[in-house]
Design goal:
single chain, 249 residues, alpha+beta, seven-stranded antiparallel β-sheet, three-stranded antiparallel β-sheet, 12 strands, 26% strand, elongated
Length: 249
């Protein structure tokens, strides 16, 4: 009788230990899964913030016509296809190089998988884009012919090491190309170059100034302010305000 009781007690103890092990294992598994989920969620949020900051940095830099000009100068843009490009002379805190291109790592968890220029769909053009699209101008005395304005989108595809890609945010650009489809200048809708060319003048990227598309503009001496300068006309003493584009023939 005593032996049977001991046997029953031993069986109960084993059962209790087994149950406690199962419960403890379940709790540890739950804590591990919860910890892994929290890590992935935090990492995803960090990656999203880094991506958002990176794209905003690209956009704000390209808002400066000089930066856009330096970054894409002489790269090929053909509006009938997607064009692989490199953003030269760019600095970003999480990138150890001055060129942003395909397969470049951003920080510890992101990588650029593609960076292209392609034609912006015509049905999404704004009124200003319709006005400037296809317009021709001459802003550089070293060019033998005029450049043509194209409306394009810069698309940078970024992938996380957690194996997902971010939704691509297009950056709209006005691109001036020569007859060989080489980029000679570019700018965004927030730049001084855009304001200049939307007023039917020419942005001289080489000199970083706005110039009249015509040879000269004139107006009364009563409002002779920059970029106009006072000049004499003819043999007499008649004076006018003059703004000229020395690069036009």
């Amino acid at each position: 009788m005593h032996a049977m009781q001991l046997k029953n007690n031993k069986g109960s103890a084993i059962l209790m230990v087994t149950m406690l092990s199962l419960v403890s294992g379940g709790i540890l598994f739950y804590l591990f899964m919860d910890s892994d989920f929290s890590y992935r969620l935090q990492k995803r949020l960090n990656d999203k913030n880094l991506y958002s900051h990176f794209i905003k940095n690209i956009k704000s830099n390209l808002d400066w016509p000089d930066q856009c000009y330096i970054s894409l100068l002489n790269q090929v843009y053909n509006s009938s296809q997607s064009n692989q490009v490199v953003l030269n002379n760019f600095s970003y805190k999480n990138i150890p190089t001055s060129a942003i291109n395909k397969n470049l790592k951003i920080g510890s968890g992101l990588m650029i998988t593609d960076i292209i220029l392609k034609r912006k769909p015509f049905n999404t053009f704004s009124k200003e884009e319709r006005l400037l699209s296809g317009s021709k101008k001459k802003w550089d005395r070293n060019l033998s012919s005029e450049v043509t304005t194209k409306i394009a989108q810069l698309l940078i595809t970024v992938k996380s090491h957690l194996n997902y890609s971010f939704k691509t945010v297009p950056i709209n650009l006005f691109i001036n190309v020569d007859p060989y489809n080489k980029i000679k200048s570019c700018y965004t809708a927030l730049s001084a170059a855009y304001i200049c060319e939307s007023l039917k003048n020419s942005w001289n990227a080489y000199r970083s100034v706005c110039e009249p598309y015509k040879t000269c503009f004139y107006k009364s001496v009563n409002s002779c302010s920059l970029p106009y300068s006072l000049t004499s006309v003819g043999v007499g003493s008649y004076r006018v305000c003059q703004w000229c584009n020395s690069n036009r023939n």
